[in-house]
Amino acid sequence: MFVQQAKFCSLRVNKNFHLRSKLLVGIILFVFFVISFLTNIIGPLVPDIIDTFNLSLSMAAFLPFSFFLAYGVMSIPSGFLVEYIGEKKVMVLAFFISFCGALIFSIKPNYLFYILSLFLIGTGMAMLQVSINPLLRNIGGEKEFAFNSVLGQLLFGLASFISPLIYSYLITRLSVGNEPSNFIILFLKKITFANLRWVSLYWIFATVSFLMCVTLIFTNFPEKKKPVRENKEKLNNYLTIIKNPIVILYFFGIFSYVGLEQGVATWISKFLETYHSIDPQILGAKIISYFWGLMTLGTISGLFLLKLIDSRKILIFFTSASIISFVLAVFGPQNVSLILFPLIGFFISTMWSIIISLALNSMSRDHGAFSGILVSGIIGGAVFPLIIGIIADFAGLKVGITLLLIPLLFILTIGFWSNPIVNNR
Fold first, then answer.
1. What is the CA 49 to chain-centroid distance, rounded?
2. Neighbours of 208 (CB within 10 A)
3. Which of 35, 105, 248, 366 might form a disulfide with 117, Cβ 3.0–4.6 angstroms?
4. What is the pLDDT of residues 21-45, one digit of tens each?
5. Per-residue pLDDT tens for 248-261?
């Protein structure tokens, strides 16, 4: 009888542990959603931002620059911070910084505070990007890590798809003449100026960040703190491998991809408004939503294709299709642009994962340090939109956005010169 009771207690403990692990994984996966929700909303807002603050295109481009600059500045330091204080504390700190950033702009909506706000939110998002992956691997298990990572990317894509639609909904419901349909809309209408209704999104961001901060404080995560010696070794690894030409090339691969992704997402709406007279708040926002939605669909399709075809061949084919779609979208008529701009999202969807896998499979050691360097390449999302804006002020947005052919062509070359130790299938 004692043995039976012991077995029953053991089963109960294991069941409770399993449920708790699932709950913790669910919280982490939701963090992916929040990161995307806060990151990929800048593009739909660009036309409103320009009109509200009377900005040149280059001044508008400083906004995504300030956001993604935080990734370049904080990615590697965040890795060390995770090692010293653990993933949970870093995530709590990240959401608190993001909360402060969103609140600052919500209370004082002007251009300079917006730059500060986006840098703080970007800092929080960079810290989250660095901390959630090792935590997901630790809690969800090594065997389920790949599956959970895919789920995270799907939620990331879903949030990118939803956020422009939420923006469009808020603008419509908060516009003059529309009666508030619920308490939330009524409250947002009272705390935002009539000519700054889009700022309501940042009140939502502040609220979400605060709630996530509180949730994480009261959530117990199993954390592993590494000794200081390992941290010193990690720093030496960074300094050593950064001299490797392959590391530098793959860094520019990630730099190019994120620059391409954010360059398109940032300027789609303004491009369509300028050259095709598209309403940025309604149809422009929908086109950006479709861009992210097709990217998510492309990610799912890529999972199946990677089981059948070598990843380098997929990269070459999808990048070639991206180049053709991009050229036709920029220089084609309105109906072509409306179709092909979203389709670009589908074709670039596999680039991130393929470049990362080719990079890590090209080295036999120091994968942690290499991964940190690759993540810092996200700063490309700051550089390319800014350069496009500067060029656009002098030569027009069509000329400026054509700059994105450079990262596209560089990514295409990766499919030819990459030589991984392990075949990427």
1. 20
2. 18
3. 105
4. 778 888 888 888 888 887 777 777 7
5. 898 899 999 999 99
Q: Within 13 Å and on the Cβ side, how many CA atoms surround 106?
A: 19
Give the 3-state DSSP-derived string for 92-149, with helices as H, strands as E and coil as C: HHHHHHHHHHHHHHHHCCCHHHHHHHHHHHHHHHHHHHHHHHHHHHHHHCCCCHHHHH
- Measure the CA–CA gap between 268 and 355, rounded to whole angstroms: 24
Phi and psi for 123 in degrees, rounded to 5? -60, -45
How far is it, in rounded angstroms, from Cα 375 to Cα 398?
30
Q: Which helix (H) or strand (E) holds 20?
A: helix 2-39
Question: Which of 257, 401, 391, 262 lies closest to 327 in space, CA to CA?
Answer: 401
Question: Residue 17: pLDDT above 70?
Answer: no
Domains of the chain (ranges plus CATH)?
Answer: 2-417 (1.20.1250.20)
Which of 257, 254, 253, 251 is CA-nearest to residue 238?
A: 251
Q: Is the model's pTM score more than 0.85?
A: no
CB 387 within 8 A of CB 68: no
Please report the pLDDT score of residue 67 as a whole number.
87
**DSSP string covering 313-349:** HHHHHHHHHHHHHHHHHHHS-HHHHHHHHHHHHHHHT
pLDDT of amino acid 195: 75
- What's the rounded Cα separation, in Å, for the pair 376 and 391? 25
Q: What are phi and psi of 415, to 5 degrees?
A: -65, -20
* Angle formed by the axes of helices 57-85 and 111-140, nearest 10°: 40
